[in-house]
Every structure is written in C-alpha cells, then in structure tokens.
Design goal:
heterodimer; A: 5-stranded antiparallel sheet; 4 helices; B: alpha+beta; Porin; 3 domains; 8-stranded antiparallel beta barrel; 6-stranded antiparallel barrel; 13 helices; about 25% helix
C-alpha cells in the first residue's frame, strides 16, 4: 500500500512537472514590431517599437537597435521613412552593419556574436548616435509583457533619420538623394 | 491650427481603453447640489453656500461656476440635464477667456496625463491620424464625472434619540408578544444614553459619467459642434455646445448619515451656537464621505502608474496630485502573455509609500519628481510594472503558543505607519495551593490591544514592534464540585466573581514572513508583567496565593487578510 502511495505521488509530481508552460521567443535580430507614431522635428521620426529581451532593460536597448534596423532594412509604414534606406538589404553590406550595430565581441582572440536578447554589452556602436527614447524611460505597463521567461516591451523611440542617411551616404552604403537615379 | 488638427482626429476616434493597465488619465469631477427643503433649511443653505465642496486631489476639479441645481424634477439625472451641467462642463473645456479655443483641452490633457505621456505629448506634433494627441484629447472628453449631493432629513440629536428609543420600544413590545422566544432571549427596552447634542443629516451622493467614450459618442459630438467639415463658426460651436444633448450614465450612489454633534457636558461649557454644529455637520470630510466610498471601489478612480525605477529604491512618478500619503498601499501587477497570445494580469507584490510623497501639484510637463516606495511582499519588482492603489484591509489570524489558543486582528491606520491590533488569548495552567490542596486547573483569558510598527527589512520579511495594554483574568476551570457561592474568611464569594483580574502594559517583538500576498506567518514574544502574588487567586474555596506566572509569553500565528492583505 505504502509503495502504491509513493508511486502515485511520484506520478502526480511528474505530471505537474511536465505541465510548465514554455513559450519560445525567436532569438534573432529581426524579431520586433514597429509602428509609426508621427514625424518628429528636424528630420526625426517617432515610432513605437516592441522588442524582446531577457529583462525589460534589455528589451528597451533592443528597441533602439530595432528602430534603426527597421528604417534601414524594412521601412516604417505610415511615416516619411516608409521605404527601407538600404534596398540591397543587410547581407549586401554584412561586415559594415555588423560593426555599425556592434554585433560581435572578441573574447580570447575569438570573434563571438552577442546574444540578441541581451545587447547591453554593446557600448559604443555607431547606431546609438541616431536613436533615443522619447520619454523619461518609463515603460507603460500596457506595453510591457512577460512572455515565458523573457520580456517584451514597447517604447516610443525617436530616430534622427536625416543624420543616419548622411552617415550612410558618407560611407558610400547608399547614394545621395541629390545624385539622382 | 489646434482647431484644424483637433478636428482631423474626430473621424477615427478610438474607444477609450478600459484595460487595467491603462495609466494615462486622471478623472475630472464636478459637484452639483440639489437644493434642500425641509427642517432647518435656512441653516443648511447658509452653511452650504459658504462652503466649497472639495475634490480629492487625485481627481481634476472641473470648477464650473454653477453648482446649485434649480427646478423640482424628482429625477436627478433629468434635473442635471435640465440645468445643462454637462454643457457647462464641455463649454469650459473648449473656452479660453471668452473665446472658443483648444488650448484649454490641451492644458487639461497635459495636467491629467502621466509624466511619461506628457513627454511623448510634448515631442509629437498634433494631427496625424495615429498621433498620441487623439488618445489624450479623447481621454479628456471621456473622463468627466458629475457628483450630485442631496441633503435629506436634517434633525436634532434629541430627535434622533427619540427615534432610537421608539424603535427599541417597538422591538421590545414585539419580542414580548413573541411566544416562540424564551423569556431570557427577549429584548428588554433600555432608553438610550443621551450624551450628545447637535444635528444629524442623511446625504446621498450620486455619481454620473458624461458618456463620451465610444467612437460613436465622440463622432456625433464633434460633427455637431464643429460641423461636417469643420466649417462651423465659433458662435455656432458655442451654440452647439450649449444645446448638445449629452447622455449621462449612472455610476454609483450611496446614502450616509453624517453628524455634527458635541458631548453635552462640553457643549454646555463652550456655549456652541447652531452655526458651529452645522459647520461640523457639513464639514468637507462629511460631505466627501459618499464620494470617497464610491471612488475607492471603482477601478477607474484608482491611482495607477508605472514603476519608474527600482534602484536604489522603488520609485513611481506620482505624488500629492494623486492623493498620495505616507504608507498608502499599492498592489503591483504585470501583464503575462500565454502561449496563445492571451494576456493576464498577474499580481507581483505589495508596496507602500515610503516617507513624504513628492509634491507634483501643478506639474504638467512630465517633470514630476518620483515618490519612493518600499516593498512589503511579493517577488522582485521591476520597472514598467503597474502600481495600483489599494485600500487597507483588516487582517485576521489565529495562533498557538503559551496562550494555548490565540485570535487576533490588525488594521493599518491610514496616513500613519502604524497598525492597530487586538488580540484574545486563552491559556490553561496548573496551580498548587500553598495550603496543600491538590493541583487545580486554572484558566486565563487575556484581551490586549495596542499599536504595532512593522519594519520590512527584507522582501517578504518584517520585524514588528508592538506596545499596548493587556487585561487578563485568571479563574478556575469548570468543576462539578464547584459551588455557586461559598464562604471564605468571613466573606461570601460567588463563582462569577472568583478569580483575579490584572491590567498592565505589554511590549512585543514579532518576526513575520509573507507566504503570499494574503497570508503571513509570524512568531511573537510578548513581555507582560502580570503578578498575582498580592491579590491571590481564589479557587474552589481555597485561598491560593503566590500564583506565579511568567512575564513573557510567545505565540505563532497565521494571519489572513480580508480581502487581500
């Protein structure tokens, strides 16, 4: 009888153990949502960006990178940067954009890609000069979600697309608008 | 420019989000008063004319000039409409000086939105179909409430006593006629002790919302006021605002009895006049009592804000404008997404305001200094979680220890950082007579009450320091051989008066842990110097003295909060 009870208890525990919900969040640099809010002032664009991270702070940092990513490679529908700036896509200039976004670190002589859900290790990547959070850093509770063991956060981001375009033109990644077609 | 941009918002007006996690807008309130006719009507009118009814600071006061309703329509809702109160409110929202303007609504939106929204508001230009302004302007239009106050049945304290006596007499008479009840169970009439003098009144508070929160409501309103294509002149707009048929939605209503009384003995020495009693009767606290009850129980009136920072301490950008006070309690929630994409609100912890809250009165540009909070229960809190005010509640518990059985209750006193507690304990002991009588079972019951200060030194753990009074009575346990009365040392004693009572102070230390937001386990050591050696205990006709009981006692308790903490 005692053995039966122990077996039953173990079985129940194993069932309960299997019931934990796991939600998978794709771990890459394209998993984000972006929505144009408005034109900002002086060549800036405002957008709401929803990104993922291991923590809310990670997700906010990712949102800044994703905002730039959207303007460069996807375009932001409903804004004055609706078309992507780099029509050829990221792969055409992979080395340039790897450095632009600071996606690799060097550890013990080995180049290692950073974790897309924790980009707080990126310190001085060039993209950071063109992006900022539009408010005081408060995340609206309605834009903050716990998804499995990760977080999704939506923040209002302002991107200086005019200066960003200038940078890419200077680096010969895109042609100047004045140069014609 | 503002006008054109505002109008462009109307075609795609959105439903106001009533989601729990919506934090942006303070609600606006307008008081109106139905004139009172009845006993003491001149005193009531003079007192209320001289008093401006306050608005809780967490609500925006619409401050319209007219607050007394005129007319005799019994239906309050129709009376408010007849007096065009909603029209006056909306007219004020769209007026700057004497001219039609959208600056006022813009200022009102900024004053009532969260800091984060105010900053977003300031960086976006107005008018794009998806812009944040639409949300904020619609929120201003959709957050206007009218609180109607009705004074009824003003009476003297003497009349009130007469009513109580009459009710009690009738009950006693009915009980006397009731043959199904035993004689001992029947109610016996005792006249009420008439210690106070002054006045009482009933007040009914009814809360209405000006319905302007659906796409249809907003669209109809804007087409009527601004014209199909925004072509209306300012004169036409004012005219439309004056005559617009607003719809009211009743939110809640309650009736309370309020008092303006003094103790007769005190009143005789102070020579108070009627004005004193009526001012006390219609004090702001009394007039607001109904509104306070309503706003505490309705979600939309609760203060909600995002946690702004968690290091070095928890900070939220709210303050005196949201009626914050030291130790006010907040529950913390976060949204959790399940694997089907569904969202649930999960409670993550409980926190209270630490120290003096920030003064943010008049701040509308997003530069509110945050107020600090301390966490008392739950998991690690994080920025962006929702903090929602939650009123204090009673906590009840039971325990075991040197008091064999122990029952207790406590309650956080508003504004202070102290808890009021009351405890009842039952304890059994053996007692040996110094006359050689066999051991007698004694029983003690103790009632104690006092104040406790809880120090939350780590998440979910607290140290409680309490000070209070304890009254203990020790007597013999039931015994078949026990005489109802007996003679001892020339005196007659009866069972009921036997034993000994002691009143003294008690000091205690508690170590507690929150098991969940509604359940906590605590261990307490109490020092209560009760000695029976001078007034000895009488038991079973034997004179027991030097009943020594320990000055320290302990107990372990499990406490449950009603409803949550």
């Amino acid at each position: 009888m005692k053995t039966k009870l122990i077996t039953l208890a173990l079985f129940t525990l194993s069932i309960l153990g299997c019931k934990t919900t796991q939600i998978t969040v794709p771990v890459d640099f394209t998993n984000y949502e972006v929505k144009a809010l408005d034109q900002g002032t002086q060549g800036t664009v405002l957008m709401k960006v929803y990104s993922y991270g291991y923590t809310v702070d990670n997700a906010i940092e990712r949102a800044k990178m994703d905002a730039i990513h959207a303007i460069l490679f996807k375009g932001v529908p409903g804004s004055n940067v609706a078309r992507p700036m780099v029509k050829e896509g990221r792969e055409a200039y992979k080395a340039y954009f790897d450095e632009f976004f600071g996606l690799y670190t060097v550890k013990a002589g080995k180049k290692k890609m950073i974790d897309p859900l924790d980009i707080t290790q990126i310190f001085n990547a060039p993209y950071k000069q063109y992006v900022q959070i539009s408010n005081d850093g408060t995340v609206d509770p309605s834009d903050r979600f716990k998804v499995g063991n990760k977080y999704k956060a939506g923040v209002v981001i302002s991107v200086n697309h005019r200066e960003l375009r200038q940078k890419l033109e200077n680096d010969h990644i895109i042609k100047s608008l004045k140069s014609g077609f | 420019m503002l006008f054109n941009l505002f109008f462009s918002l109307s075609g795609h007006a959105q439903e106001t989000n009533t989601n729990k996690f919506q934090t942006s807008t303070r609600q606006s309130l307008t008081w109106v008063l139905r004139p009172y006719s009845g006993a003491f009507q001149d005193d009531v009118k003079n007192t209320l004319d001289a008093r401006k009814i306050g608005t809780p600071s967490k609500m925006d006061n619409n401050k319209i000039s007219k607050s007394d309703l005129s007319g005799s329509n019994y239906n309050l809702e129709l009376l408010i409409k007849e007096n065009k109160i909603p029209n006056l409110i909306f007219k004020k929202i769209f007026t700057k000086g004497n001219e039609f303007s959208l600056e006022n609504i813009s200022d009102k939106a900024k004053n009532n939105m969260s800091d984060s929204d105010a900053l977003t508001f300031s960086v976006t230009s107005i008018g794009t179909s998806d812009s944040a302004e639409r949300k904020f302007f619609n929120a201003v239009l959709g957050s206007n409430y009218i609180a109607a106050l009705e004074v009824n049945d003003v009476r003297t304290q003497e009349e009130q006593y007469d009513r109580i006596d009459n009710n009690n007499k009738n009950r006693a008479i009915n009980d006397a006629r009731d043959t199904s009840k035993k004689e001992s169970e029947k109610y016996k009439f005792t006249p009420v002790n008439r210690v106070n003098t002054g006045y009482l009144s009933d007040i009914t508070t009814s809360m209405y919302k000006i319905k302007m929160d659906s796409e249809e409501d907003l669209h109809n309103f804007e087409i009527t006021v601004f014209g199909e294509n925004g072509e209306n002149t300012d004169e036409q707009k004012f005219d439309a605002l004056t005559n617009y048929p607003f719809t009211l939605k009743k939110i809640s209503s309650n009736t309370n009895t309020i008092k303006g009384v003094e103790n007769k003995a005190v009143a005789n020495t102070k020579n108070y006049d009627a004005t004193h009693y009526f001012n006390k009767l219609f004090s702001n606290t009394n007039l607001l009592s109904g509104l306070t009850e309503i706003t505490q129980n309705i979600d939309v009136f609760k203060t909600k804000a995002a946690i702004y920072e968690t290091k070095p301490n928890i900070q939220v950008k709210i303050g005196t404008k949201e009626s914050l006070y030291t130790n006010k309690r907040f529950f913390v929630y976060e949204q959790v997404m399940d694997k089907k994409g569904g969202l649930k609100a999960k409670k993550r912890g409980v926190m209270r305001v630490k120290g003096k809250p920030a003064n943010n009165q008049g701040i509308a540009k997003g530069d509110t200094q945050p107020s600090s909070f301390y966490q008392i229960q739950g998991k690690k809190l994080d920025k962006g979680m929702l903090a929602e005010e939650n009123k204090n509640s009673f906590s009840f518990g039971f325990g075991y220890g040197s008091n064999n059985v122990n029952f207790g209750a406590d309650y956080y006193l508003p504004v202070t950082s102290l808890k009021l507690f009351a405890e009842y304990g039952v304890e059994a002991n053996d007692l040996e007579s110094n006359y050689g009588n066999p051991t007698q079972k004694l029983q003690s019951v103790a009632l104690s009450a006092g104040l406790v200060k809880e120090l939350h030194f780590a998440n979910n753990f607290y140290l409680g320091l309490s000070l209070g009074a304890i009254k203990e009575r020790t007597f013999a346990k039931e015994d078949d051989n026990f005489n109802e009365t007996f003679e001892l040392n020339g005196g007659m004693f009866d069972k009921e008066n036997m034993g000994s009572s002691k009143l003294t102070y008690r000091a205690g230390t508690t170590l507690g842990i929150y098991i969940s937001s509604g359940v906590r386990l605590s261990g307490t050591i109490i020092y209560a110097p009760i000695k029976y050696d001078e007034e000895s205990v009488f038991v079973n006709e034997i004179y027991y003295n030097q009943y020594e009981r320990s000055n320290t006692r302990y107990n372990i308790s499990l406490n449950f909060s009603i409803p949550n903490l």
